[in-house]
Amino acid sequence: MKNDKKTLFGWCMYDWANSAYGTTVVAALLPNYFALGIVGEAGVSIAGQTFSATALWGYMLGASALVVFFCAPVLGAIADFSAAKKKFLIGFAYTGSLFATLLYFCTAGDVWLTVLLFVGSQVCFVAANVFYDAFLPQITTPERLDAVSSRGYAFGYLGGGLQFAIALALVKMHDSLGMSEAMSARIGIGMAGIWWAGWTLFTVKFVKEAKPGDGRGTDNAQLQWHDYLKIGIGRTVATAKKVRRFKHLTLFLIAYLVYNDGIHTVSTMATIYGTQELGLSITVLMVTLLAVQIIAIGGALVFNRIANFLGTKRTVMLTLLLWSGVVTYGYFTQTATEFFLLGAVVGLVLGGSQALSRSFYGAMIPEEASAEFYGFYSVFSKFSATFGPLTFGFIAQVTGSARPSILSLMVFFVVGLVLLGCVDEEKAKADRLAF
Fold first, then answer.
1. Is residue 219, in this structure, part of any structural domain at all?
2. Hey, which of 83, 166, 320, 434 would disulfide with 417, CB 3.0 to 4.6 Å?
3. In total, how many domains does the chain have?
Protein backbone atom coordinates (compact mmCIF):
# COMPACT_ATOMS: atom_id res chain seq x y z
CA MET A 1 0.00 0.00 0.00
CA LYS A 2 1.41 3.37 -1.03
CA ASN A 3 1.72 6.35 1.32
CA ASP A 4 1.54 4.08 4.37
CA LYS A 5 2.72 6.19 7.32
CA LYS A 6 4.86 3.49 8.94
CA THR A 7 6.52 2.59 5.64
CA LEU A 8 7.30 6.23 4.86
CA PHE A 9 8.66 6.71 8.38
CA GLY A 10 10.87 3.62 8.09
CA TRP A 11 12.13 4.79 4.71
CA CYS A 12 12.95 8.28 5.99
CA MET A 13 14.70 6.81 9.04
CA TYR A 14 17.37 5.26 6.84
CA ASP A 15 18.34 8.78 5.78
CA TRP A 16 18.45 9.63 9.50
CA ALA A 17 20.74 6.63 10.07
CA ASN A 18 23.24 6.84 7.24
CA SER A 19 23.59 10.63 7.20
CA ALA A 20 25.71 10.38 10.35
CA TYR A 21 28.33 8.62 8.24
CA GLY A 22 28.01 11.11 5.39
CA THR A 23 28.32 14.07 7.75
CA THR A 24 30.68 13.03 10.54
CA VAL A 25 32.94 10.64 8.66
CA VAL A 26 33.02 11.80 5.02
CA ALA A 27 32.43 15.55 5.41
CA ALA A 28 33.79 16.47 8.84
CA LEU A 29 36.06 14.43 11.09
CA LEU A 30 37.84 11.97 8.82
CA PRO A 31 39.14 14.54 6.27
CA ASN A 32 40.62 16.63 9.09
CA TYR A 33 41.98 13.62 11.00
CA PHE A 34 43.30 12.08 7.78
CA ALA A 35 45.17 15.29 6.89
CA LEU A 36 46.61 16.12 10.33
CA GLY A 37 46.61 12.86 12.28
CA ILE A 38 47.26 10.13 9.72
CA VAL A 39 49.07 11.62 6.70
CA GLY A 40 50.60 14.74 8.25
CA GLU A 41 51.98 17.86 6.60
CA ALA A 42 54.81 15.95 4.90
CA GLY A 43 52.35 14.00 2.75
CA VAL A 44 52.75 10.44 1.49
CA SER A 45 55.44 9.24 -0.91
CA ILE A 46 54.15 6.94 -3.66
CA ALA A 47 56.49 5.74 -6.43
CA GLY A 48 58.91 8.54 -5.61
CA GLN A 49 56.28 11.29 -5.74
CA THR A 50 54.85 13.04 -2.70
CA PHE A 51 51.08 13.37 -2.46
CA SER A 52 49.39 15.84 -0.14
CA ALA A 53 46.45 14.78 2.01
CA THR A 54 44.15 16.93 -0.17
CA ALA A 55 45.20 15.17 -3.38
CA LEU A 56 45.08 11.72 -1.79
CA TRP A 57 41.62 12.37 -0.33
CA GLY A 58 40.32 13.37 -3.76
CA TYR A 59 41.79 10.24 -5.32
CA MET A 60 40.23 8.05 -2.59
CA LEU A 61 36.79 9.49 -3.29
CA GLY A 62 37.27 9.02 -7.01
CA ALA A 63 38.36 5.39 -6.58
CA SER A 64 35.31 4.47 -4.50
CA ALA A 65 33.06 6.14 -7.08
CA LEU A 66 34.61 4.06 -9.85
CA VAL A 67 33.87 0.83 -7.96
CA VAL A 68 30.22 1.83 -7.61
CA PHE A 69 30.13 2.83 -11.28
CA PHE A 70 30.86 -0.75 -12.30
CA CYS A 71 28.58 -2.36 -9.69
CA ALA A 72 25.49 -0.17 -9.29
CA PRO A 73 23.51 -0.99 -12.46
CA VAL A 74 24.08 -4.72 -12.00
CA LEU A 75 23.01 -4.53 -8.35
CA GLY A 76 19.91 -2.55 -9.27
CA ALA A 77 18.90 -5.04 -11.95
CA ILE A 78 19.46 -8.01 -9.63
CA ALA A 79 17.42 -6.39 -6.88
CA ASP A 80 14.60 -5.62 -9.28
CA PHE A 81 14.57 -9.18 -10.65
CA SER A 82 14.66 -10.96 -7.30
CA ALA A 83 12.50 -8.54 -5.30
CA ALA A 84 15.41 -8.25 -2.87
CA LYS A 85 15.88 -4.49 -2.59
CA LYS A 86 15.46 -4.59 1.17
CA LYS A 87 17.96 -7.44 1.64
CA PHE A 88 20.58 -5.64 -0.42
CA LEU A 89 19.90 -2.34 1.35
CA ILE A 90 20.32 -3.89 4.80
CA GLY A 91 23.34 -5.98 3.78
CA PHE A 92 25.28 -3.03 2.40
CA ALA A 93 24.18 -0.79 5.28
CA TYR A 94 25.54 -3.09 7.97
CA THR A 95 28.73 -3.94 6.08
CA GLY A 96 29.40 -0.24 5.52
CA SER A 97 28.67 0.64 9.14
CA LEU A 98 31.14 -2.05 10.26
CA PHE A 99 33.92 -0.61 8.06
CA ALA A 100 33.10 2.88 9.34
CA THR A 101 33.27 1.77 12.97
CA LEU A 102 36.64 0.08 12.37
CA LEU A 103 38.09 3.43 11.26
CA TYR A 104 38.33 4.15 15.00
CA PHE A 105 41.43 1.93 15.11
CA CYS A 106 43.37 3.94 12.49
CA THR A 107 46.20 6.02 13.99
CA ALA A 108 49.18 8.07 12.75
CA GLY A 109 50.84 6.43 9.76
CA ASP A 110 48.00 3.97 9.04
CA VAL A 111 47.45 5.52 5.62
CA TRP A 112 46.65 2.37 3.65
CA LEU A 113 44.45 0.83 6.37
CA THR A 114 42.47 4.08 6.42
CA VAL A 115 42.22 4.06 2.63
CA LEU A 116 40.99 0.45 2.63
CA LEU A 117 38.36 0.94 5.34
CA PHE A 118 37.18 4.27 3.97
CA VAL A 119 36.83 3.07 0.38
CA GLY A 120 35.02 -0.05 1.64
CA SER A 121 32.59 1.94 3.77
CA GLN A 122 32.03 4.50 1.00
CA VAL A 123 31.27 1.80 -1.58
CA CYS A 124 28.76 0.17 0.77
CA PHE A 125 27.24 3.55 1.62
CA VAL A 126 26.50 4.47 -1.98
CA ALA A 127 25.55 0.91 -2.99
CA ALA A 128 22.93 0.82 -0.23
CA ASN A 129 21.52 4.07 -1.58
CA VAL A 130 20.84 2.37 -4.93
CA PHE A 131 18.23 0.23 -3.20
CA TYR A 132 17.08 2.99 -0.86
CA ASP A 133 16.32 5.32 -3.78
CA ALA A 134 14.62 2.50 -5.70
CA PHE A 135 11.94 2.23 -3.01
CA LEU A 136 10.74 5.81 -3.58
CA PRO A 137 8.37 5.30 -6.55
CA GLN A 138 6.99 2.14 -4.89
CA ILE A 139 6.11 3.60 -1.49
CA THR A 140 4.41 6.81 -2.61
CA THR A 141 2.29 8.22 -5.43
CA PRO A 142 3.66 10.46 -8.23
CA GLU A 143 2.12 13.65 -6.84
CA ARG A 144 3.91 13.12 -3.50
CA LEU A 145 7.36 12.23 -4.85
CA ASP A 146 8.81 15.71 -4.20
CA ALA A 147 7.36 15.90 -0.68
CA VAL A 148 8.48 12.41 0.41
CA SER A 149 11.94 12.80 -1.14
CA SER A 150 12.40 16.16 0.59
CA ARG A 151 11.17 14.71 3.89
CA GLY A 152 13.77 11.95 3.60
CA TYR A 153 16.53 14.50 3.13
CA ALA A 154 15.18 16.55 6.05
CA PHE A 155 15.29 13.44 8.28
CA GLY A 156 18.85 12.88 7.10
CA TYR A 157 20.03 16.38 7.90
CA LEU A 158 18.36 16.22 11.32
CA GLY A 159 19.73 12.79 12.23
CA GLY A 160 23.16 13.45 10.79
CA GLY A 161 23.25 16.85 12.49
CA LEU A 162 22.30 15.38 15.87
CA GLN A 163 25.03 12.75 15.81
CA PHE A 164 27.45 15.33 14.49
CA ALA A 165 26.57 17.67 17.38
CA ILE A 166 27.45 14.89 19.82
CA ALA A 167 30.78 14.36 18.05
CA LEU A 168 31.41 18.12 18.08
CA ALA A 169 30.80 18.27 21.84
CA LEU A 170 33.20 15.37 22.29
CA VAL A 171 35.96 17.09 20.31
CA LYS A 172 35.34 20.45 22.00
CA MET A 173 35.49 18.92 25.50
CA HIS A 174 38.35 16.47 24.90
CA ASP A 175 40.59 18.12 27.52
CA SER A 176 37.87 17.95 30.18
CA LEU A 177 37.28 14.31 29.30
CA GLY A 178 40.97 13.50 29.65
CA MET A 179 41.68 12.56 26.05
CA SER A 180 43.59 13.96 23.09
CA GLU A 181 41.85 15.72 20.22
CA ALA A 182 42.86 12.86 17.93
CA MET A 183 41.25 10.31 20.25
CA SER A 184 38.03 12.34 20.44
CA ALA A 185 37.95 12.46 16.62
CA ARG A 186 38.43 8.68 16.42
CA ILE A 187 35.60 8.10 18.90
CA GLY A 188 33.33 10.46 16.95
CA ILE A 189 34.07 8.54 13.73
CA GLY A 190 33.39 5.17 15.39
CA MET A 191 30.16 6.49 16.89
CA ALA A 192 28.92 7.45 13.42
CA GLY A 193 29.29 3.84 12.28
CA ILE A 194 27.36 2.57 15.31
CA TRP A 195 24.66 5.24 14.77
CA TRP A 196 24.27 4.12 11.15
CA ALA A 197 23.79 0.50 12.22
CA GLY A 198 21.48 1.22 15.15
CA TRP A 199 18.93 3.50 13.52
CA THR A 200 18.75 1.29 10.42
CA LEU A 201 16.71 -1.08 12.61
CA PHE A 202 13.69 1.18 12.02
CA THR A 203 14.05 0.57 8.29
CA VAL A 204 14.37 -3.15 8.92
CA LYS A 205 11.14 -3.12 10.93
CA PHE A 206 8.84 -0.83 8.94
CA VAL A 207 9.88 -1.05 5.27
CA LYS A 208 8.52 -4.09 3.48
CA GLU A 209 9.83 -5.45 0.21
CA ALA A 210 7.75 -4.18 -2.70
CA LYS A 211 6.59 -6.81 -5.18
CA PRO A 212 7.95 -6.58 -8.73
CA GLY A 213 5.50 -5.06 -11.16
CA ASP A 214 5.93 -7.63 -13.91
CA GLY A 215 6.04 -10.89 -12.03
CA ARG A 216 9.79 -11.09 -11.60
CA GLY A 217 11.21 -12.66 -8.50
CA THR A 218 8.44 -15.25 -8.12
CA ASP A 219 10.40 -18.36 -9.14
CA ASN A 220 14.06 -17.82 -8.37
CA ALA A 221 14.66 -19.90 -5.24
CA GLN A 222 17.15 -22.13 -7.07
CA LEU A 223 19.21 -19.32 -8.56
CA GLN A 224 22.80 -18.98 -7.36
CA TRP A 225 24.91 -15.85 -7.13
CA HIS A 226 26.49 -16.45 -10.55
CA ASP A 227 23.01 -16.77 -12.06
CA TYR A 228 22.06 -13.40 -10.57
CA LEU A 229 25.29 -11.92 -11.89
CA LYS A 230 24.52 -13.18 -15.39
CA ILE A 231 20.93 -11.93 -15.13
CA GLY A 232 22.08 -8.59 -13.75
CA ILE A 233 24.58 -8.01 -16.55
CA GLY A 234 22.02 -9.02 -19.17
CA ARG A 235 19.39 -6.72 -17.71
CA THR A 236 21.91 -3.90 -17.42
CA VAL A 237 22.59 -4.10 -21.14
CA ALA A 238 18.85 -4.18 -21.76
CA THR A 239 18.36 -1.17 -19.46
CA ALA A 240 20.97 0.78 -21.39
CA LYS A 241 18.95 0.19 -24.53
CA LYS A 242 15.74 1.21 -22.73
CA VAL A 243 17.26 4.42 -21.38
CA ARG A 244 18.29 5.41 -24.89
CA ARG A 245 14.59 5.39 -25.83
CA PHE A 246 13.96 8.12 -23.24
CA LYS A 247 15.57 11.12 -24.96
CA HIS A 248 14.87 13.70 -22.27
CA LEU A 249 15.58 11.28 -19.43
CA THR A 250 18.98 10.62 -21.01
CA LEU A 251 19.62 14.35 -21.34
CA PHE A 252 18.70 14.86 -17.69
CA LEU A 253 21.10 12.10 -16.64
CA ILE A 254 23.94 13.77 -18.53
CA ALA A 255 23.11 17.12 -16.95
CA TYR A 256 22.89 15.48 -13.53
CA LEU A 257 26.23 13.73 -14.06
CA VAL A 258 27.85 17.11 -14.63
CA TYR A 259 26.27 19.32 -11.97
CA ASN A 260 26.14 16.66 -9.26
CA ASP A 261 29.89 16.25 -9.71
CA GLY A 262 30.29 19.83 -8.56
CA ILE A 263 27.87 19.43 -5.64
CA HIS A 264 29.53 16.24 -4.43
CA THR A 265 33.02 17.72 -4.68
CA VAL A 266 32.12 20.85 -2.71
CA SER A 267 30.49 18.69 -0.02
CA THR A 268 33.33 16.20 0.35
CA MET A 269 36.35 18.49 -0.14
CA ALA A 270 35.20 21.46 1.97
CA THR A 271 36.69 20.26 5.26
CA ILE A 272 40.09 19.35 3.89
CA TYR A 273 40.06 22.68 1.97
CA GLY A 274 39.43 24.52 5.22
CA THR A 275 42.09 22.48 7.02
CA GLN A 276 44.99 22.73 4.57
CA GLU A 277 44.23 25.89 2.55
CA LEU A 278 42.69 28.16 5.20
CA GLY A 279 44.31 26.67 8.31
CA LEU A 280 41.02 26.55 10.22
CA SER A 281 40.72 24.65 13.49
CA ILE A 282 38.68 21.47 13.73
CA THR A 283 36.23 23.29 16.01
CA VAL A 284 35.54 26.00 13.41
CA LEU A 285 35.10 23.37 10.71
CA MET A 286 32.72 21.27 12.80
CA VAL A 287 30.62 24.24 13.92
CA THR A 288 30.29 25.30 10.27
CA LEU A 289 29.28 21.81 9.18
CA LEU A 290 26.77 21.58 12.02
CA ALA A 291 25.25 24.84 10.81
CA VAL A 292 25.09 23.36 7.31
CA GLN A 293 23.11 20.40 8.68
CA ILE A 294 20.66 22.57 10.59
CA ILE A 295 20.07 24.99 7.72
CA ALA A 296 19.77 22.12 5.24
CA ILE A 297 16.79 20.71 7.16
CA GLY A 298 14.79 23.81 6.32
CA GLY A 299 16.46 24.19 2.93
CA ALA A 300 15.13 20.87 1.63
CA LEU A 301 11.60 21.78 2.71
CA VAL A 302 11.80 25.40 1.50
CA PHE A 303 12.91 24.37 -1.98
CA ASN A 304 10.12 21.79 -2.07
CA ARG A 305 7.66 24.69 -1.64
CA ILE A 306 9.48 26.72 -4.29
CA ALA A 307 9.18 23.71 -6.62
CA ASN A 308 5.42 23.73 -6.11
CA PHE A 309 5.43 27.29 -7.46
CA LEU A 310 8.20 27.29 -10.10
CA GLY A 311 8.22 23.61 -11.03
CA THR A 312 10.89 21.04 -10.19
CA LYS A 313 13.22 21.68 -13.12
CA ARG A 314 13.30 25.46 -12.74
CA THR A 315 13.91 25.13 -9.01
CA VAL A 316 16.89 22.84 -9.57
CA MET A 317 18.23 25.36 -12.09
CA LEU A 318 17.90 28.07 -9.44
CA THR A 319 19.99 26.00 -7.02
CA LEU A 320 22.70 25.61 -9.68
CA LEU A 321 22.97 29.38 -10.00
CA LEU A 322 23.45 29.55 -6.24
CA TRP A 323 26.07 26.79 -6.37
CA SER A 324 28.01 28.82 -8.95
CA GLY A 325 28.07 31.69 -6.50
CA VAL A 326 29.26 29.37 -3.73
CA VAL A 327 32.42 28.22 -5.54
CA THR A 328 33.22 31.76 -6.70
CA TYR A 329 32.96 33.05 -3.13
CA GLY A 330 34.93 30.04 -1.91
CA TYR A 331 37.88 30.99 -4.11
CA PHE A 332 38.19 34.36 -2.33
CA THR A 333 37.44 33.09 1.19
CA GLN A 334 40.14 33.95 3.75
CA THR A 335 38.65 33.91 7.25
CA ALA A 336 36.63 31.64 9.52
CA THR A 337 33.66 34.02 9.33
CA GLU A 338 33.64 33.92 5.54
CA PHE A 339 33.88 30.13 5.61
CA PHE A 340 30.91 29.98 7.98
CA LEU A 341 28.80 32.24 5.73
CA LEU A 342 29.72 30.05 2.78
CA GLY A 343 28.57 27.01 4.74
CA ALA A 344 25.22 28.67 5.46
CA VAL A 345 24.52 29.11 1.74
CA VAL A 346 25.61 25.52 1.04
CA GLY A 347 23.19 24.31 3.69
CA LEU A 348 20.36 26.26 2.08
CA VAL A 349 20.79 24.81 -1.43
CA LEU A 350 22.24 21.35 -0.71
CA GLY A 351 19.06 19.56 0.32
CA GLY A 352 16.92 21.23 -2.31
CA SER A 353 19.17 20.41 -5.26
CA GLN A 354 19.61 16.76 -4.26
CA ALA A 355 16.06 15.95 -3.15
CA LEU A 356 14.43 17.59 -6.16
CA SER A 357 16.86 15.94 -8.59
CA ARG A 358 15.94 12.54 -7.15
CA SER A 359 12.19 13.16 -7.32
CA PHE A 360 12.47 14.73 -10.81
CA TYR A 361 14.14 11.55 -12.02
CA GLY A 362 11.56 9.39 -10.23
CA ALA A 363 8.76 11.16 -12.10
CA MET A 364 10.32 10.24 -15.46
CA ILE A 365 11.00 6.50 -15.00
CA PRO A 366 8.68 3.47 -15.29
CA GLU A 367 7.66 2.28 -11.83
CA GLU A 368 7.86 -1.44 -12.61
CA ALA A 369 11.58 -1.17 -13.35
CA SER A 370 12.45 1.36 -10.65
CA ALA A 371 15.44 -0.48 -9.16
CA GLU A 372 16.85 -1.10 -12.62
CA PHE A 373 16.53 2.57 -13.60
CA TYR A 374 17.71 3.80 -10.19
CA GLY A 375 20.78 1.64 -10.70
CA PHE A 376 21.55 3.87 -13.65
CA TYR A 377 20.70 6.94 -11.59
CA SER A 378 23.22 5.78 -9.01
CA VAL A 379 25.77 5.19 -11.76
CA PHE A 380 25.40 8.75 -12.98
CA SER A 381 25.26 10.02 -9.40
CA LYS A 382 28.31 8.16 -8.19
CA PHE A 383 30.28 8.18 -11.42
CA SER A 384 29.82 11.94 -11.36
CA ALA A 385 31.50 11.76 -7.97
CA THR A 386 34.62 10.56 -9.81
CA PHE A 387 35.65 13.47 -12.02
CA GLY A 388 35.17 16.29 -9.50
CA PRO A 389 37.36 14.92 -6.68
CA LEU A 390 39.98 13.68 -9.15
CA THR A 391 40.06 17.09 -10.85
CA PHE A 392 40.21 18.85 -7.49
CA GLY A 393 43.06 16.62 -6.31
CA PHE A 394 45.00 16.89 -9.57
CA ILE A 395 44.81 20.70 -9.76
CA ALA A 396 45.80 20.98 -6.10
CA GLN A 397 48.73 18.63 -6.73
CA VAL A 398 49.93 20.55 -9.80
CA THR A 399 49.42 24.11 -8.52
CA GLY A 400 50.21 23.50 -4.86
CA SER A 401 46.98 25.27 -3.89
CA ALA A 402 43.35 24.20 -3.57
CA ARG A 403 41.97 27.63 -4.55
CA PRO A 404 42.17 27.02 -8.32
CA SER A 405 40.57 23.64 -7.61
CA ILE A 406 37.49 25.14 -5.95
CA LEU A 407 37.06 27.71 -8.73
CA SER A 408 37.29 25.03 -11.43
CA LEU A 409 34.02 23.54 -10.14
CA MET A 410 32.18 26.49 -11.73
CA VAL A 411 32.41 24.62 -15.04
CA PHE A 412 30.34 21.72 -13.67
CA PHE A 413 27.50 23.97 -12.55
CA VAL A 414 27.34 26.12 -15.69
CA VAL A 415 27.43 23.17 -18.10
CA GLY A 416 24.89 21.27 -15.98
CA LEU A 417 22.60 24.29 -15.94
CA VAL A 418 22.65 24.63 -19.74
CA LEU A 419 21.97 20.92 -20.29
CA LEU A 420 19.17 20.83 -17.73
CA GLY A 421 17.51 23.76 -19.47
CA CYS A 422 17.19 21.61 -22.60
CA VAL A 423 15.17 18.89 -20.81
CA ASP A 424 11.45 18.91 -21.71
CA GLU A 425 9.69 17.80 -18.53
CA GLU A 426 6.34 17.02 -20.15
CA LYS A 427 7.83 14.97 -23.00
CA ALA A 428 9.87 12.99 -20.47
CA LYS A 429 6.76 12.11 -18.47
CA ALA A 430 4.92 11.18 -21.67
CA ASP A 431 7.73 8.77 -22.55
CA ARG A 432 7.32 7.20 -19.11
CA LEU A 433 3.61 6.57 -19.62
CA ALA A 434 4.26 5.09 -23.07
CA PHE A 435 6.84 2.59 -21.73
1. no
2. 320
3. 1
| Domain annotation covers residue 346 | yes
Question: CATH number for the domain including 240?
Answer: 1.20.1250.20
Residue pLDDT, tens place only, 166-209: 998 999 999 999 999 999 999 999 999 999 999 999 999 999 97
Which sign does the torsion angle of CA 321, 412, 124, 217 carry? Answer: positive
What is the spatial distance between Cα 107 and Cα 96, in angstroms, rounded to a whole number? 20
Q: Best-predicted range by mean pLDDT among 124-138, 204-218, 222-236, 374-388? A: 124-138
Kindly state whether residue 300 falls inside one of the protein's structural domains.
Answer: yes
Q: How many CB atoms lie within 10 A of CB 429?
A: 15
Do the Cβ atoms of 233 and 136 come closer than 8 Å? Answer: no
Residue 222 has pLDDT above 60, yes or no: no
pLDDT of residue 96: 98
Torsional class of 303: left (φ above 0), alpha (ψ -120 to 50), beta (otherwise)? alpha
Contact status, residue 66 vs residue 122, Cβ threshold 8 Å: no
The alpha carbon of 117 is separated from its chain's Cα centroid by a whole number of angstroms, namely: 17
Determine the structural domain holding residue 319 and report its residue range.
5-39+48-210+224-433
pTM of the full predicted structure? 0.78
Q: What is the pLDDT of residues 46-59, one digit of tens each?
A: 878 888 888 888 88
Q: Is 194 inside any structural domain?
A: yes
Round to whole Å and give the CA distance between 329 and 383.
26
Task: Find out whether 326 and 338 touch, Cβ atoms under 8 Å.
Answer: no
Query: In 3D, which of 21, 272, 26 has the Cα closest to residue 163?
Result: 21
CA dist., res. 302 & res. 316, Å (int):
12
